[in-house]
Amino acid sequence: MSTEPEVPANRAPTLTDVAKLAGVSVATASKAINGRDEVKAATRARVLKAAELLSFAPNALARALLGGRTGTVGLLTSDLEGRFSIPILMGAEDAFGAGQVSVFLCDARGDAIREAYHVRALLSRRVDGLIVVGSDTDPRPPLAGTIPVPVVYVYAPSADPGDISITVDNVGGGRLAIDHLLACGRRNIAHVTGEPGFAAARDRAEGAAAALTDAGLTMLGGKPYYGSWDETWGGPRRTSWSSSTPRWTPFSAAATRSRGASWRPCVTSGAMCPMRSP
Amino acid sequence: MSTEPEVPANRAPTLTDVAKLAGVSVATASKAINGRDEVKAATRARVLKAAELLSFAPNALARALLGGRTGTVGLLTSDLEGRFSIPILMGAEDAFGAGQVSVFLCDARGDAIREAYHVRALLSRRVDGLIVVGSDTDPRPPLAGTIPVPVVYVYAPSADPGDISITVDNVGGGRLAIDHLLACGRRNIAHVTGEPGFAAARDRAEGAAAALTDAGLTMLGGKPYYGSWDETWGGPRRTSWSSSTPRWTPFSAAATRSRGASWRPCVTSGAMCPMRSP
DNA sequence: CTGAAAGCGCTTACAG
DNA sequence: CTGAAAGCGCTTACAG
Questions:
Q1: Are A166 and A154 in contact (CB under 8 A)?
Q2: With CB atoms counted within 10 Å of each terminal CB, which end of chain B scores lower, N or C?
Q3: What is the C-alpha separation between B269 and B205, in angstroms, rounded?
């Protein structure tokens, strides 16, 4: 054990610094710090004290270079500003545990070139896996090239059925909504939804229609009311209607203005139902 | 140059693989790939072709171990779900450039313990710097311990004036709002704002009051209307008022329901004004 | 129980 | 122009 602390000058302390201060070899210091049991208790204590003294934090890069795992994951979103990436990111973070696995967040801004850049960077950082989050439930083209790590597509499934995708059961969601209204005693039920160009809108409509049919009912107006994906379309404030839509105001937008709890976006046709695998 | 491609079996291709395939040493392969000019053009071409063939992506970890820089930054937020972290994250990402610097996103969920865990993890991953994003403009305690990399506090400044903080000029924001209304010809101006426990509310009120005083006017009601940080407080729908607030409805919440553009949160007292350093 | 040695994938002086 | 060698910070067999 040297006489003075020898705090390293201008760089982060290394295992060698710790070992030197504790008067052992780096091999032993490594074992002590990693909780291997082939170390005498007194030795371990000395090493740990030295590490503490130097505020030693093991270099995860060096460790990863050996182990093959980096403990990092890339989360690639196409639409960070949107409503869906953040909850998914938070769920992933929770699952990974604070500090166990760290996530690289990349926003491709809906641009394929940008996405490719990010993938390249993430792979050279040797992430252990990739999570690709889309902003709607329409299938998207899989990542180009051979990706040497596991990839999970979330929200927007991969167009390749061989890939692993976690997406929303929108057909089931449409069913759930109708079943709920039926359970409330309603019989005259309309379906107000988003643009028919989205799989989400079509799928929910399909589920809703099926549930109504099962109940021996028909949809009010005979078909879903497709419209734009915003609260205005579902709200009561509409004053002029196009000829293809009925003169009738289905929902109150009151939920979007509820008092108290912090203010949250609210979609009128079920996008907020819990995610489940298909 | 070997006769068959020798694609490595079950692992990512390394510089050694590339060098072998190109028939040069790793040193030369390294120089060729990194664009050093001490390499014969023909040799460089051969190396690049080999790299291409193997889909070689240099191991950023190994590179970082040498260079001292990792090209990564930690972004530590306390409130990912809130309104402010995401725009800041996107700005940072833009500034870093896709794939040049990657950002680790960590959400401390407002918990100091969790924050400490994340800091520890980020430091062991040897980030080149840290961005700490708060959810309001009240000063926050600086990160505990000695942080060996540059730290920038954003939105919520550090309580230590020696630290670098980028925050919002709320006093100036309050002034701007009043100046705008004055320019529109208004003379009876009230200030409806958030809870007085927040520096943001107090600062904006201060700026607004000062601008009114400068114009020889007084604030309608004689003082700011402090209330909860939500649209309801600023909106027209209020039916009952506490005795401390006037029977008067200041703002229309219509902006939060505007048609067309995708739906955005809207704060009634200026939080959305552009950020500037103090 | 402890330590010398090899090696993870790369870069950088330093000889040839 | 090219390559052998050392080294970044760590871990892991393998001897002692």
A1: yes
A2: N
A3: 9
- Output the distance from B127 CA to D16 C1' rounded to whole Å: 40
Query: CA–CA separation, A16 vs B124, rounded Å?
Result: 16
pLDDT at A268 over 70: no
Of the candidates B272, B248, B265, B254, the one whose C-alpha atom is nearest the C-alpha of residue B190 is B248
Q: Given B166, B187, B207, which residue is the final one in a domain?
A: B166
The A164-166 sheet, strands edge to edge? A164-166, A151-154, A129-133, A72-77, A102-107, B102-107, B72-77, B129-133, B151-154, B164-166
CB contact under 8 A, B230 and A62: no
Q: Which two tokens stand for residue A143?
A: 């990542």
Weakest mean pLDDT among A128-142, B89-103, B160-174: B89-103
What domain range includes position B26?
A: 15-58
Least CB–CB distance from B105: residue in A98, A103, A124: A103
Q: Convert the pLDDT of each residue in A63-115 to its tens digit.
A: 999 988 999 999 999 888 877 888 888 899 889 887 689 999 999 988 899 99
Q: How far is the CA of B118 from the C1' of C15 (A)?
A: 46
* Domain contains A4: no
Q: Is the CB of B65 under 7 A from strand C?
A: yes
